[in-house]
Amino acid sequence: MAQSVVKPGKRISGESGSSTSARKLALVTKLRDQIAAIEKRHGQAERAGDGQAAEGAAGFRTAPAGILHEVWTDQDRNAGAALGFALGQARALLDRQRPAILWVQLAHEGQETGLPYGPGLRRFGLDPEALVICRVQNVTEFLWAVEEAAGCQAVAAVIGDVVQPGKALDFTASRRFSMRAEAAGISIFMVRYGTGREASAAGLRWRVMPHLSGAAPFDARAPGVPRFEVALEKGEALMGLKQGSGNWILDWTDHGFERDTDGKLDGQPGEGRAAALSGAAFAALGYRLSETA
Amino acid sequence: MRLKAVDARATELGLFEGQSLSDARALCPQLVARQIDEMGLTQLFGQFADWHSYASPIVEVHDDMAPYGDLMIDVTGVSHLFGGEEKMLAHVTGRLTRLGFAVQAGLAGTVGAAWALSHYAPGVIIADEGSPLPWGRGRREAAGEGAFGSEPDARPPHPNPLPQGRGGVDAVPDRQSLADILAPLPVEALRLDPMRVSGLRQMGLKRVGQVLGRDRKPLQARFGDVLMARLDQILGLRTEKLVARLPLPERQVERRFADPIGLLDDVMASVSDLSVQMQALLESEGLGAQTFHLFLYRVDHQLMHLPVNGARAMRDAKHLTRLFANRMERLSGEFDAGFGIEAVRLAVTSVSRLDAEQAGVFEAGDGTADLDRLYDRMASRLGPQAVQRTKYFNSHVPERAVQLEPVIARTLDDALALDLSGVPERPERLLPVPEEIQVMAEVPDGPPLRMVWRKLTYRIARAAGPERIGVEWWQPGEGGLTRDYYKVEDGDGRRFWLYREGLYESETAVPRWFLHGLFS
Description:
The complex is a heterodimer of chains A (293) and B (520). Chain A is of the alpha/beta class and 293 residues long.
């Protein structure tokens, strides 16, 4: 800038037309930057709206792609619920360009929390072909695998399940994950167990606990559709929520997450859409229950 | 305890293989005897043999006669690279001799003859043209026997009827036939066990020629088919093939270094160069390969063999280099260049047609190519068994219905898509091994009321079931019990998949309960 002032006047006058266009260009660039900055926060959240039926339950929406999630649950015996929630979130991100979800787990923890079971994943609308199971030997490999998978343009989501992460999974690691996720537009879900929380760069931190399900249709004694108690502990702003308003009790139905499908939870009328869902199969079982009991 | 191997000085003192240790000590009180590490030696000799793949791709260790094996090299079609058979034999043996190995080698048209020459007439080459046998043309084998020793000539010479010195190479004149050359060798040269050799010697048959000249019928009656087989093999009337220890490359590129290299980075640099060469080679023929092998030849006769598999046929040099970098990382601590690496070879197997692809301008790909590359990278770093996907099988038993198969070894007959619509609910997580639990039920056949799993008690609030899964009696070795599966929910909403093993009273007196899966 200083140099252009020193230059001979003839040249300045000769460039008067182009300098206005340069100013315009600068303005446009500045505006673009502003938009990008806005988009990074709320814009991302809005984009989720035109994906899958996100606004199923009041105030709850599935998160857009490109975010590092932490899905915490208190004990490893709740592993099923944590996986279910992560899968529910990840399903919305699958499309033709991104047909795969990667599951990364320490090999020796497979018995502890179980391996994803193909036929069971159908409930989450997931073709078992789409889920690739990656069993690693140690935490270093775990970190490598998650990061590598998060760099691939064809992966929709990476779910890392780790009971005992050791020291290697620290803030730096989470920062790396989060930058990778943002750069490639892939969501990373770290399924974690316990009540202690460490510093992390995760955009969203969920606490997911199983919740007593609503009754199955036709059989009051059988468990109903999966129900979770979900709390958003970090990242309300990212999801466009007010502080402290991120608490839900959610059912997983064929339409995604919905709140209180049987209408018995807190007196609010349910949408009733879930009634004829995946219940049919185990309702049939329920019938037989009365005969055997 | 017996002597297994003796060196030259011990032989001079009258010790021999198979002698008992106490006898040997009586003869030579200052004898230094060490326990032999046969496993280690066999392995070492195997690596030593592999390293000779620098000369010819088909290398085998015959372990039926010598204690650590005889190294056999198929030199068909490669000897001209060394300037002829004599020069090749001199090169291979000379190189080892200079390094302090005691080497004996022979070269002939059949495995048996080559073995006989290497043991009892080292240095002799039976020229192809001299062989009167129709089969002998074209196939040439060289047998060598390497002994590990710090000093040259550490091994006692075998009874040697021919005057050739070892190390030197003497081509036998063309007109002499295979049988003529073999005739003066002792009968041990027929690769027979000591029992048969001593039997032949008792009959007065001490030379191969004497055995070859006799009527076969009585010999067969006395010594069995083994002798006949050995006679046929040595003359080439019966085919004996070498089985390569290493995968046979379909295409290969290599680089030899004037000065051995030792750093991992240097190795990777040449791997990247070789990958580019390999890509050009495959591209020119419109081919791609699924398996790539990297051979690192160390100066100290060790061979590092690093295979890398791809999910689909490929030839992209950049991708390939990355796979090898990952593979190297996996062995990080084990990488040992020894005294240096003198040659690097990149070879491919399972080659298939791969046409050039053009990426669409308006249509984005479906990402499967990207995915396959990702799987390649992950499998090369984490091991091929670490990256898996679900494959269905037609079975009612839950753990049998699903198997995990490596993504890169994907079977192509995926067409058998199983219809799972009729299958009742299954858990999202399955425990690889069902865990036994203690269960209290209202009635013996009923759903559980309370269970103890991993030392914690759960009160069951809801249960659905049973889903009865019988044994698959048509499967071989199937001897399980009928299972009754329940989906249960405890007071806090955790949902589990349990089963009772065995039908009450008809199959078992006290059925056991297991927890098999976790529902979301």
